[in-house]
Amino acid sequence: MVKVLICDDHEMIRDGLVALIERNSEFSVVASAGDIQEAIAKAVVTHPEIALIDVKLETESGLDLARWFQKNQPECKVVMLGSAVSHLAFLEAHRVGAKAFLPKSGSAMLLMSTLREVTSGSSCIDSSQVHAVEEMLEQSGIVALAHLSKNDTDIMRCIARGFTDKEISEALYLNIQTVRNHVSKIMSKLGKTNRTQLAILMNSVEMSEGSLSGL
């Protein structure tokens, strides 16, 4: 039987996944964990062949666990679970070696067919999907956002919270004209025309299950 490890911070979901997977005689859940440290401790003992990992754990990113597997147990095939619109998380999962990225809204049939494909050595993430997501992130301004300076990123966070130029100036200890100059340059770099667009972009990233790392 194929050994599976599950990491999800919700006990009810973990139990449901265990029951679903073990209804299929070719798979055996050898470990179930609610956080990264517990998952690593169990992986060291059980050496799973598949790790099914929730992208967004309570206070951690499941992508960090995927990185651990990539470095320490590269023979284990990682399958990530995330929301259907987690473009950043999808791209990051691909870059840390995940073989599949499944939406949590997907069916039990999709999950099991994916586990079988991954077991056979296939990757369920193809180059066309990756290219489409990279283009989407480029066009949205998120790639350019990832390359802003720390000052500009801090200003973006303030804009996302609705701060005025004066409030940003006071919060970041910058001259108000300096703030205005930075905001104007940020709009140009990100291809945006007003502060509302900047706020929407920054909030979309901060609410994402992925991060800007690696872009």
In short:
With 215 residues, this protein is α/β, with parallel strands linked by helices.
Question: Can you walk through the features of this model?
Answer:
The structure is a single chain. The protein is of the alpha/beta class. The protein folds into 2 domains: 2-125, Rossmann fold, CATH 3.40.50; 141-206, Winged helix-like DNA-binding domain superfamily/Winged helix DNA-binding domain (Arc Repressor Mutant, subunit A, Orthogonal Bundle), CATH 1.10.10.10. Helices cover 56% and strands 13% of the residues. A 5-stranded parallel β-sheet has the order 2-1-3-4-5, with helices on both faces. Residues 141-206 form the HTH luxR-type domain. InterPro entries: CheY-like_superfamily, NreC/VraR/RcsB-like_REC, Sig_transdc_resp-reg_C-effctor, Sig_transdc_resp-reg_receiver, Tscrpt_reg_LuxR_C, WalR-like.
